[in-house]
Amino acid sequence: METELATWHFIVAGAIFVVLGTVAHVIRAVFNVFPDKISDTPTVNVLVSSDYSWGDYLIGTEFDDGGYYRLDSVKNLRLSVTYWLIAGFALMLFSAEAAQMIAYGIEAGIGGFIDLFWQRVADLGA
Questions:
Q1: CB 36 within 8 A of CB 56
Q2: Is the Cβ–Cβ distance between 39 and 51 less than 8 Å?
């Protein structure tokens, strides 16, 4: 069964991309074993550090005094969420197959939650 892509799919997908961006921000900050920013020179950081990139330098990602990605930075959270929103919407706009898969996943997920809800209601009555 083919799913038609509607505006509400983009709204729900946007909410999912925001959640994924937030999770990516937390994962980068919490599970970072080694510091990203080792030196004050961006070229050294890019060459030596595995997590630091030119993108971090150009967009102004914030790091603490030890060189670790800051969890408490609203700017870092905003950058991560913005990246996920732009990448997700670009994927949906430029790839019809990916947009169909995302729409199908959203509808299947909502259908699963509805079925689970009615199953729980039926179990309460039994």
A1: yes
A2: no
User: Quick one: how far is CA 24 from the chain centroid?
Assistant: 5
Whether the CB-CB separation of 57 and 43 falls below 8 Å is answered with: no
Q: CA of 54: how far to CAs of 22, 36, 45, 78, 104, in Å?
A: 21, 12, 9, 18, 36
Contacts of 35 (CB under 8 A, 6+ apart): 49, 63, 66, 67, 68
Claim: this prediction has a pTM higher than 0.70 = yes
* CA distance linking residue 31 with residue 29, whole number of Å: 6
DSSP states along 18-57: HHHHHHHHHHHHHS--S-S--SS-HHHHHHH-SS--HHHH
Q: Tell me: the pLDDT tens digits for 12-53?
A: 999 999 999 999 999 999 998 888 888 778 788 788 777 778
pLDDT higher at 112 or 47 = 112
